[in-house]
Amino acid sequence: MLLRQLEYLVALARERHFARAAAACYVSQPSLSAAIRRLEHDLDVPIVRRGRRKYEGLTPEGEVVLAWAHRILAEQDALRQELSALRGGLTGTLRLGVVPTALPVASLLTTPFCERHPRAGVSLESLSSVEITRGLAEFELDAAMTYLDDDTLRQVRRFPLYEERYMLLTPADGPLAASDTVRWARAAALPLCLLSPRMRNRRIIDECFAADGAIATPAIETDSVAGLYAHLPGGRWSSVISHAWLHMFGVPEGMRVVPLTGPAHGPRVGLVVARSEPESVLAGALVAVAREAGVRDALDVLLRSFLRERDS
Question: Residue-wise over 150-164: b if at least 16 C-beta within 10 A, else e?
Fold first, then answer.
């Protein structure tokens, strides 16, 4: 059994199509199909369900082989990473998944990681929490930045980075702009632009509104933080943001940032890595950076600076 055959199987399961899997592996379709058949012969089990020569999924035995393929290929990567570290410096590419609402602060980890390990790189993907869970389970990610209270995460180690603190961004001439703090129920009455309900952050924000006895009915919904910020200049819309977004986007001209208060608290965002043996050397290196980065303190200092500017 060759590692290459396992790589082909993983690609086929991911692409669910022989031609696309072959293209992803930079081989011809007949070569990939022959390698999969050879793997079935070597293991003496059917792996792929085929219908008129088309991919129709994996057999129960194939699912078992696929799980082992992910594990074996991950251990191969871990071996290479450990040997490269012994040769004088970490190399390879750290595969980092990040929920969209944590992307604005990802540089607080990736920049010091690259500074400490100049021969290594980072491949950063914006992924949903569901995609992150799958990516970690199938060894397609080394680490992820996500909400730590996600019940779908299994067999991972968690490293808290910060707690989301929610702010009202509102026009400077708006009715709540001069307030020291604002209750969620009062913010709900404003013309709002919020993230879409399918995003975890929006569901959390809706829970905060509900805890204060209110329901938000935004006029505009978007699936990205950048899309949300694009609507704020102009003096018409208000929004609820995480204080972490100030790191990248700041406070738009003509807007004011006001802390939201109420019975609910923001969730923890952190770094998660798969609990596996051997551990990814790249993931371990990122964890070491995260422990020293002081993300929570850096974001708190930033928020205080924006609040001082507002009050000055």
Answer: beebeebebbebbbb
To the nearest 10°, the Cα dihedral for 132, 240, 163, 270? Answer: 20
Report which residue type is found at 179: S
| Residue recorded with tokens 């996600």 | 150
Helices 281-293 and 60-86: crossing angle, nearest 10°?
Answer: 70
Q: Which of 218, 261, 214 is nearest to 236 (CA)?
A: 218
Question: Which tokens sit at 233?
Answer: 């200049």
Distance CA 128, CA 234 (A): 30
Distance, first Cα to last Cα, the chain: 69
Q: Can you tell me the distance from the alpha carbon of 147 to that of 269, in angstroms, rounded to the nearest whole number?
A: 5
**Which pTM value belongs to this model?**
0.75
230 CB contacts (<8 Å, ≥6 apart)?
none
CA-atom Rg of the chain in angstroms: 23
SS3 (DSSP) at 40 = helix
Q: Which of 128, 132, 67 is nearest to 96 (CA)?
A: 132
Tell me the C-alpha distance between 15 and 179, whole Å: 53
Q: Which residues contact 169 (CB under 8 A, 6 or more apart)?
A: 232, 238, 239, 240, 241, 251, 252, 255, 256, 257
Q: How many CB atoms lie within 10 A of CB 63?
A: 12
pLDDT interval class at 6 (50, 70, 90): confident
pLDDT tens for residues 53-75?
A: 678 888 999 888 888 888 888 77
- Cβ–Cβ < 8 Å for 206, 196: no
CA distance 247 to 297: 12
Give the number of other CB atoms < 10 A from CB of residue 1: 12
**Cis ω on the peptide bond leading into residue 278 (within 30° of 0)?**
yes
Task: Please tell me the total number of residues recorded for the chain in this structure.
Answer: 312
Q: What is the mean pLDDT of the chain?
A: 89
